[in-house]
Amino acid sequence: MSDVNEFTDLYHKDTSDSVVRFLFEQHAVRGEICYLNKSVSDLLSRHHYPRPLRALMLELAASAVLISSTLKADAQIMVQLQGGRGEHAIRYALININEDLSFYGSALYDSEKKYSDLLTFKDLAGEGASLIISVFPKDGNKWQGIVPLDGTGMADALQGYFNNSEQLPSTFFIYADPDSLKAGGLMLQIIPEAEGNNESLEHLTVLGSTLKLDELSQISLYEALRRLYGHDGVKAVKEQQVRFKCVCSRERCETALTSLSRSELADIAEDKQGTEMTCQHCGQVYHFTQDEVKQLLLKISQ
């Protein structure tokens, strides 16, 4: 890690769709800062979510990026909002993010209802909603944390998760613009092995509260850190790229079709138009002709 005041050649670098990890040695606090543009635009481009739900998905994406390397390395992480009760409560919204910071996600809601632009995060979450964070390490030992959603946004939800479930005092600032499809975030977290860093976290949180999404969209992440914490000895590492990448494929669709019973697949094979499967995460449509379905039927009949 290097002092951000030494990154003069990176102050004007385009750090869109990336995340930078940093720490304060004199404060025993670590953190991450991210700004997302094209990646979240790709996430939402094939969906027709109402404006409030776009904002929620943007918050969810920024949240997933910030915590991806905090919880566990070499693991896929799913950040899911499980909706509760309410007239406009969604069923769920989720983001899956891999160790290489590629992510995908989707939301399920009642598209027949009218969603006013004035609906809030709490309206979409509903009463009794919860935040579920699932970690899928490569060694196979999955673990999961669940906390109730009592706040007004993902920042409150994540702070509740880390402060209560992980016993790691943390501060989150999450930003989302559902019109320009931009998102960002700042995380501050104490280093648990150190002592007396709660006061430092409060000090750094006050400074961090001055950051705005418009500022993140105009300057590099390094310049943002320098402006916020240039006098606090903040050290940072090279940014990591973030991108949208769905895991759907024609092969996965074939597997899904061949997992049907023979009678179910035989019924589909009777349709001269063939069949289509649409990915719920990215909207990609996969078409199978009648002959292709018959070949799959023959495959499972052997």
TrEMBL record:
<keyword id="KW-1015">Disulfide bond</keyword>
<dbReference type="GO" id="GO:0051082">
    <property type="term" value="F:unfolded protein binding"/>
</dbReference>
<dbReference type="GO" id="GO:0005737">
    <property type="term" value="C:cytoplasm"/>
</dbReference>
<dbReference type="InterPro" id="IPR016153">
    <property type="entry name" value="Heat_shock_Hsp33_N"/>
</dbReference>
<dbReference type="GO" id="GO:0044183">
    <property type="term" value="F:protein folding chaperone"/>
</dbReference>
<dbReference type="GO" id="GO:0042026">
    <property type="term" value="P:protein refolding"/>
</dbReference>
<dbReference type="InterPro" id="IPR000397">
    <property type="entry name" value="Heat_shock_Hsp33"/>
</dbReference>
<keyword id="KW-0676">Redox-active center</keyword>
<keyword id="KW-0963">Cytoplasm</keyword>
<protein>
    <submittedName>
        <fullName>Hsp33 family molecular chaperone HslO</fullName>
    </submittedName>
</protein>
<dbReference type="Pfam" id="PF01430">
    <property type="entry name" value="HSP33"/>
</dbReference>
<dbReference type="InterPro" id="IPR016154">
    <property type="entry name" value="Heat_shock_Hsp33_C"/>
</dbReference>
<keyword id="KW-0862">Zinc</keyword>
<keyword id="KW-0143">Chaperone</keyword>
